[in-house]
Amino acid sequence: MSHLAYAAAAEFDRLLGDPRDTGRLFSHARSLALDEREEFPLEICRELDLLGLPAHYVPVAHGGALRNFGDTLQIVRTIARRDLTVAIAHGKTFLGAASVWVGGDPRQARELGAEVARGTAVSWGLTEREHGSDLLAGDVSAERTAGGYRVSGEKWLINNATRGDLVCVLARTAPEGGSRGFSVLLIDKRRLDPTSFRTLPAARLHGIRGADISGVAFSDAAVDHSALIGAEGDGLEIVLKSLQLTRTLCAGLSLGAADQALDMATAYALARHNHGKPLIELPQSRRLLARSYADLLTAEALTLFASRALHALPGELSITSAVTKYLVPTLVDQALARLSRLVGTRSLLRGDTFEHGRFQKVLRDHRIVGIFDGSSVINLNSLINQFPLIARAHRRGPADEAGLRTASTFTEALPDLDPAALELLPRRSSGLLHAVPAAARELRSLADAGAVPHSLAAHAAEFAEVLEEVTERIGRHKPTPVAAPAHAFKLAEDYARCFAAAAALQLWLRNRSAVDAEATHGLWESGLWLECCLVTLVGRLRPVRTEHLVAEGGRDPEEAVDRLVEPLVAQHTSGQLPSLLPYSRLGTPA
Amino acid sequence: MTTSAPESTAQVVSSEEIRDMLLNLVASYLEQPVTDIRSDVKLLDYGLDSIFALTLCGDVEDEYGIEVKSTLAWDYPTIDAITGFLHEALSERV
Ligand SMILES: Cc1cc2nc3c(=O)[nH]c(=O)nc-3n(C[C@H](O)[C@H](O)[C@H](O)COP(=O)(O)OP(=O)(O)OC[C@H]3O[C@@H](n4cnc5c(N)ncnc54)[C@H](O)[C@@H]3O)c2cc1C
């Protein structure tokens, strides 16, 4: 049985079939062979088109199947769990189309919805050879003509720039540039004079080798006025709002990567013997698995919250999406590094010796997730820019407690996705961080009643203390024009970890009675997963030297986290994937 | 900066007051004497980037208790332009 939140994803998985079966189109064997040849996964993408995946990139309002963003995100995760190259190559269409969902008129959105549902690939051209994340530096220009625009210049390192028939371009429409000097154009390459553009050769890559990361160069390409999305000058605003959606979606890519790696590592630790003992019985191996699982659970909890908050608290997505895009890939990079220490040599082997070479592929493939669509640095910088508003919202107190409850409670119905409700900056505070002291008190009562261990209540209380320090530091932060000081980046990292811990608290408290305790093998009962998230997050926020602590007769705080090995193994042997919510792997247990 | 409650501020605010408030705000961001800031120069020319200009709307809300679009400084790129817009918005409210 799979949890409702993952039902749409599980159905997709079932249709695609067991990836270990080499007779399946979307098998591990095929993914790895394609990667070796740096070949685009064309047939697999066609299969995904036939199965109706593109409709999940189109909101229901525009004729698609996207009603709940979390469903789309979990489907992307399912694809990424098999092969990140495919998830990135196919999922890019959502990124390309997002600007139209945000800024397009109803006719443009309906027409694009129909194109996407037919399987047309849409790419998103922001980056240029000389300009990456600095969107206002773009040189691609669109000059007004009688019937529309004349576009010139080059977009480079663009996913599907060659394969995609449609490319959504951010172009300079005022020569002097500036915040109102750019516009979004949805350019249909099929309708351009073929002499007015050319595609650029695909870049050769470290990971996702089969993907089409190429470019497109326009020279006086005439596009019709109907290509303009929103008003002239709205480009930056539309792109920044679209990035809030796409940065949230990227979490699905990271979760899929962690799922694969942890599943492989667990199988290895159970099967491999050292000094006559299975690896899983060595304390250090258990620690590596447990810490990695804690990171995955933290990332998963944050993602579940963020994808619901996208519906329930859209006005704060500038914060939620930046936290998610920074922290989820970072946690997963950390988990992958730990797991490769456990797996050892086999994390490097290509070919058929170990899991078709999937481990080295996922290590390479995931590297890009923390870089594209706004790197970790960019997302932290965005949080720093928002510090004055975060501090202000915090002083004013919670404003949308109902929204917070909806975002946190799985069984509550979500309002429809409303791109018009997105804001470039948070207007008010959702109360996620405000709710921490009350949540800590709730856990204290639960501990007094014997429902959760006192250690959990103590960790929650400690987190509430740390949070107070962090918000106080944010309140003291003095905004600086343009270049944020280096120390502010650490503060932004701390803020992101506090946000994740606060989201975990709400998720556990609001869903603990609804989640099937038996099917989750003890993860939810007595707050085990929550305690592990808090221990690892607070451990980073307020580091202690474990060896000093133990030498002085104290307890190793991470011992609490080691308890995750038990549910991890129980899930694995009962044919489930490591996850906060029950999710069956396909086929028979390995 | 003082935080005013929205209800209590429904009174006429002169353009001069608004301009002075904005000049002081920009000067304190830039850590420059207020006499060095001109109200007819684009904020961008002072090195205030676009995202930074966004946060201005929070300060304006704190000061006058009205909600303005977060793109205020994009659409009104100088202190004079913002002053004109705010003066009109505040007068309408009275
Ligand atoms: C596989 C792949 C797929 C891609 N797909 C697309 C796509 O489909 N569409 C698209 O438009 N782009 C795409 N890109 C481009 C990618 O999004 C950019 O490369 C990315 O925005 C980062 O830019 P940059 O590192 O090239 O350059 P820059 O943004 O110039 O960054 C260079 C370095 O400067 C530093 N830096 C930059 N800004 C700041 C700051 N504010 N504060 C502190 N330090 C900073 C960072 O250390 C950064 O590494 C893709 C790239 C790859 C590799």
Word description of this protein:
The complex is a heterodimer of chains A (590) and B (94). With 590 residues, chain A is α+β, with helices and mostly antiparallel strands. Chain A has three domains: 4-120, Acyl-CoA dehydrogenase/oxidase, N-terminal domain (Butyryl-Coa Dehydrogenase, subunit A, domain 1); 123-233, Butyryl-CoA Dehydrogenase, subunit A, domain 2; 239-573, Up-down Bundle (Butyryl-CoA Dehydrogenase, subunit A, domain 3), CATH 1.20.140. Chain A contains 19 helices and ten strands. Chain A has helices at residues 7-16, 28-36, 42-50, 69-82, 84-103, 106-117, 235-271, 283-312, 317-343, 358-366, 376-396, 401-408, 436-448, 454-476, 486-511, 528-541, 546-551, 559-562, 565-573; strands spanning 122-125, 141-144, 148-159, 166-172, 182-188, 197-200, 213-224, 228-229, 273-274, 277-278. The mean pLDDT of chain A is 95. Chain B is an all-alpha fold and 94 residues long. Chain B has a single domain, classed as Non-ribosomal Peptide Synthetase Peptidyl Carrier Protein, Chain A (Orthogonal Bundle), CATH 1.10.1200.10. In chain B, 53% of the residues lie in helices and 0% in strands. Chain B contains four helices and no strands. Chain B has helices at residues 15-30, 50-64, 72-75, 79-93. Chain B starts with 14 loop residues before the first helix and ends with a helix. Classes of the chains: A alpha+beta (590), B mainly alpha (94). Chain A binds chain B through residues 136, 178-180, 236-237, 382, 385-386, 388-389, 392, 395, 423-425, 427, 479-482, and chain B through 3, 29-30, 44, 46-55, 57-59, 62, 67, 70-71, 73-75, 77. Residues 123-127, 132-133, 157-159, 205, 208, 213, 368, 372-373, 375, 377-378, 381 of chain A line the site of flavin-adenine dinucleotide. Chain A: GO terms for molecular function: acyl-CoA dehydrogenase activity; flavin adenine dinucleotide binding. Chain A: Residues 33-119 form the Acyl-CoA dehydrogenase/oxidase N-terminal domain. Chain A: Keywords: FAD, Flavoprotein, Oxidoreductase. Chain A: This is Alkylation response protein AidB-like acyl-CoA dehydrogenase.
